TrEMBL record:
Gene Ontology biological-process entries: cell wall organization
Domain Pili assembly chaperone N-terminal: 35-147
Pfam family, one: PapD_N
Source domain of life: Bacteria
SUPFAM superfamilies xref list: PapD-like
Listed name of the protein: Fimbria/pilus periplasmic chaperone
Keywords: Signal
Organism of derivation: Sphingomonas piscis
Annotated signal peptide: 1-21
A cellular component term, taken from the record's GO annotations: outer membrane-bounded periplasmic space
Keyword field contains Metal-binding: no
Amino acid sequence: MKRLFFSALLSSVLTPSTARAEIVVSQLVVELQPGKVARQDVEIWNNDKDRAYVAIEPHRIVDAGQPTERRVEDPDPEKLGLLVSPARMVLEPGQHKLLRFADIVPPSDRERVYRVTIKPVVGDITANQSGLKVLIGYDALVMVRPAVAIEKVTAERSGPRINWRNEGNVSAELSEGRQCSSAGQGCVDLPGKRLYPGASWSVELKNDGPVEYVVRSPGGISKRKL
């Protein structure tokens, strides 16, 4: 889940100033499940006093979470595997509209991952506008679950680190990591991460005390003690 910042320079003979154009997205993580209605609507609204022009750009994430990760763009939704509609919006101040995400290809044996950029773009510039306008956009995460979910996240403690690996076919979110001393004192928080299928991740530890993590996956929530 990412928030993006863009800027546009508006030229004029007037004294430069900085303005902020903001759109709001109701949900930044979308999960589409097989065997159900494989679509979901997200609300977008204009939280600014000016009209907002919004562009939506979906990308397939290949090898998510791995060193070879890359974004793939295709104007054909059937080839991309995900329909995002509409591709553009015009929002009046305070106006709300729905953005639809729909899985339009047969279920696969591995989770498909997408990033959808939702960003305001500059409309027509009038002569009395000046300065810098900051445009705030978003990078929504869309996960299309496989027909049969296999959850297998392994963790191995090796010296001053824990090595995590996702050997299943769906992603899992590692969060609320915590390590305390052997006496249960001096606890520190540990970083979290979304671990995609086939990906690995190592966490450096502060001491040799016990570690706890919460693992969230399509099958539910569990606690892992290491």
